[in-house]
Amino acid sequence: MRWLRLLKIVTVSLRYGLDQMLIDAGSRLRFAGLLRVTRLGRRFDAPRAVRLRQALEALGPIFVKFGQMLSTRRDLLPPDLADELAKLQDRVPPFPSEQAIARLEAFYGRPLAQVFARFETQPVASASVAQVHFALLPSGEEVAVKVLRPGIEHIIANDIALMETAAALLERVWSEGRRLKAREVVAEFSKHLGDELDLMREASNCSQLRRNFRDSPLLSVPEVYWDYCGPTAMVMQRMHGLPISQVDALRAQGVDMAALSRAGVEIFFTQVFRDGFFHADMHPGNIFVAPDGQYIALDFGIMGTLTDVDKNYLAQNFLAFFQRDYKRVAQAHVDAGWVPRGTRVDEFEAAIRAVCEPIFDKPLKEIEFGRTLLRLFQVSRRFNVEIQPQLVMLQKTLLNIEGLGRQLDPDLDLWKTAKPFLERWMNEQMGWRALRRKLAEEAPGWALTLPELPRLAHRVLGRAAEFDVTQEPAAAERRHRGLMRWLRVLCLLVATLIGVELWRLFGS
């Protein structure tokens, strides 16, 4: 089976001239002479990027998803390849309803008629990994049932194994293969696919995002019905709305498109900077709009997470870019530890300035925010900066959000919408507000530790005395008094801070 799949991959690669793309890349390639023989009698009129996209489409849905992921790695790919791969669409014919029913009945262990009051056999959505059917629970709730494709685990395992073999071979025979981190890219793709194959993980992502936006007027997230969920099946609330791509229908429904585009930007930055947990697959097919103009999020297989370090890096960069403070941008990379040792910050700053200064000749509303972040990644590539996977996902999401926002409202000034949010977040991370928040977080732990300080101090002083036997008694006594003085000051300071914070929390 695997040999047949490998034969198809080789055949498709030759048909679309992918072997010639390696030679045309202009880098040292072992066995290049052998590949040049295959060029005889073959001419390709289409550009290399188009041929690569067509080859991935011919190889099937798993390779299409791989191409989609590759399109986000603009720190590794030339712009023409990344732009063309971004056109890939995960459109897969649905599998027979009988197979979906059989897989669900195997999971639930009983006939589907005993699980749902009604189950619609016609799927409403289909992708490479799963498809969705509408149903009705016995308790009366309308739900959407997501079920994995039969045999998809075996198909993915075979394709990933072949990709890993190809990536290892590419790094051995092509000098650029190591710089492109072929094996690392395949490993990253394998991880994402593995996450999508576990629908319990997707259900937990959905539940977390719903909790983050509970009672939000901006975003609605379906409820998960946990009693019906498992690794191969996910049941969630059915959401009613129009796909966000149906702009004319939304206008006819009375939706304020300018307000809708601004709300999308606010939702994105709320996910990123408030929660550090964001929907990383926000293409139009995964977003609906309710009649009242509220966003509806769907499909939670790919989520991104950010640490406080990541969030600080992003906020510093966004604000510094639009203040033309390129030294601050370069310093943010140094502070994050992503610049290789020995990199001169002033040279990094000059490279960033050379790329970004022409952008700011335009009005702010004409500056493409996502492209600005992309340019940063391109400069980083020259300086061998390690681009973090979570930031690559973020960049892809930001490009989706910005493109969607400007489709809804061509006059969208993304910077004007985002700047107040970023400045507010930065203010909350610094100064007295941040100190108070940290105290509130740490106060319960301090309250438990404080009563133990005398015992711990006595133990430390006892051990110190053991090492003071060689000292003069007067010197040991002075040291003991000094330690006790500092201990009293420390206890008083900690007690005061805890008291102030507890009074603020519970006394007002």
TrEMBL record:
Superkingdom: Bacteria
Sequence ranges assigned to domain ABC1 atypical kinase-like in this UniProt record: 87-332
Keyword presence, Nucleotide-binding: yes
Keyword Iron attributed: no
GO terms of biological process kind: ubiquinone biosynthetic process
Alphabetic keyword roster: ATP-binding, Cell inner membrane, Cell membrane, Kinase, Membrane, Nucleotide-binding, Transferase, Transmembrane, Transmembrane helix, Ubiquinone biosynthesis
GO molecular function, one term: kinase activity
The protein's annotated pathway: Cofactor biosynthesis; ubiquinone biosynthesis [regulation]
Family (UniProt): Belongs to the protein kinase superfamily. ADCK protein kinase family.
Name of the protein: 2-polyprenylphenol 6-hydroxylase
Organism: Methyloversatilis universalis (strain ATCC BAA-1314 / DSM 25237 / JCM 13912 / CCUG 52030 / FAM5)
Lineage: Bacteria, Pseudomonadati, Pseudomonadota, Betaproteobacteria, Nitrosomonadales
